[in-house]
Amino acid sequence: MGEASFEVVGDVARFRLTGEQVLESAVQLIADAITRTKEAGLDKLLVDITGIRGIEPPGMSTRLWLMGEWARAGRGHVRTVLVVRREFIDPDRIGVIAGMNSGFISNVFETEPQALDWLLGIRGRDSSKPTSEP
User: Is the pTM of this model over 0.85?
Assistant: First the structure.
């Protein structure tokens, strides 16, 4: 199995999953990180899953399910951004929209700098769309 790590840097919680993962377990681990962030009195979480293996990019029904799980965990209190490989990003952002409809504020990017810019509300580069730039 893979590894999971949780740390707090400043006012941002960071959760990283690496190695071989199973979808259901990974979704639960991320939900647990959201809950842990909320319980720590923080409202920002960066989740990095660029190093996972064994999970295929989710289809629409899976995206809706996992966003529902994470929305329940956060209850509108934790702004969450995911850093993922390009193939995991739906160009129409169906999961992000579904999460918003459930009160889960989230976004997804390919790079950590883009993700942090969005999470911290920093403007200056286009953080609304994923790119392959470092």
Answer: yes
